[in-house]
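Sample pair:
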Amino acid sequence: VRAARLAAFTDLLGMLVEYGVPLPAAFRLAGAASSDPLTADRAAAVEARLAAGAPLADALKGQGLVPDWVTWLAAAGERRGGLGPALREVAGVYRRQTDARSAVLRS
């Protein structure tokens, strides 16, 4: 379930970033769209840190919103000007995990 929620969250976040939504607002919107209140709360905390001027990696650290590898990949994507595609790739990873787990449960 967590992988499916992370897939949806990171996919929407990536889409918002690709369409030029400022990063703090993108976190707020993606969090608000989540069906998980914990994800929404953690996204709001990241939004506040970003709005205060924290770099993305620092804003994500210690919030429990995404695993460390996602924080690293997002920071690398941000540095290279490819944050949106990096987040969409993360969504794909989580979507494939969800699909694989579903296939195992169906068999």
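The helical segments are 2-18, 23-33, 37-51, 56-60, 68-79, 83-106.
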